[in-house]
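Troubleshooting: if your tokenizer reports a length mismatch, compare your output against this known-good record of 389 residues.
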Amino acid sequence: MTDVETFRELQREVTEWRRYLHENPELDFQEHNTAKFVAEKLASFGINHIVTGIAETGIVALIQGEGGDGPTIGLRADMDALPIIEASNKPWSSKKPGIMHGCGHDGHTAMLLGAAKHLASTRNFKGCVALIFQPAEEVEFPSGGFRMVQEGILDRFSISQVFGMHTRPGIEIGGFGIRHGATMGSQDDFDIIVKGAGGHASTPHRTVDPVTIGAQIILGLQTLVSRKTDPMESLVISVTKLKASQAYNQIPDQVEISGTVRALASNLRDFAEREMLAAAQGIARGFGGDVDFRYLRSCPVTFNSPEETELAITAARSLVGHDSVDDNMKVTMGAEDFAYMSEARPGAYIFIGNGPTVPTHHPAYDFNDEALPYGIGYWVKLVETILPV
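Known-good structure output:
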């Protein structure tokens, strides 16, 4: 067995990798340079079973242990960046204007590469480890996680369990957070086209004003959460886009309303889709208008299976101690497309501390390189815990 000091020996090298990836971010399904970098590093570790081009730019690499026969477990890291103008002012800031690693995927990729180097050199486990480097986590449906599952990686590589990890600002360096069951919310997206009859803004009585109707619909959607949902259940309906006329003196024929729905239970997704349409139609028709409604189901709930969650907790605590692992962290309504993998196979998703930094998706965010040895160590401990010799 190993402790975190073992992995500090890798920190300088892995930090160089992480900062290179941060300087050279790539958006969803465009991670060609990133995938090339990852594949070359894996080959340099002596890993000879590397499959590229999965879901366009994804990679799965296999490391066979020397401890005998056993199952194959999957360790997943995401590789894509975000369309954000970086404001971290770090020497390794993005060289690509308008694109940055604002969610720590550079750190996720670097930590799994560091673990791969260690595991490939020791192979102190039975069975096999499948390293999953996934593209396009940040996009709406169909994302990279969905596509990798659809392309059959779990069956193709006989993966029996899957595990993921994500940076979390607010958790101290060396700390981890995890919980049993629902960990992150599902994500659905919606568009409501409010149809009216436009005209001159000076004569609103001659129109069916979709702006006014749209405003009533936006307010009405909030009552689905506050007055029609059990307050002990979690449902979020957020309107995030609104498009109407581009002129001061025109009432348009239609208004477009869009947003997102987050939930922790599938029945709430059904409820939201049904009741949002009913509410929008009722309000619009009451004012003489109508609506077109589109509801797109994206990521399911990220669910941590009982056995796999306990294995993850055991691995993390064997690295950093009991008190540095919060095994009942608060659920988040953010979505994560690792859910497609953990829906198809039992798995667990853990958060690793990034310290007191700005949140992810912030222009000034940067992955904290002091977390690297802890992330590498967690992956190695997890393998040694699940596949002991």
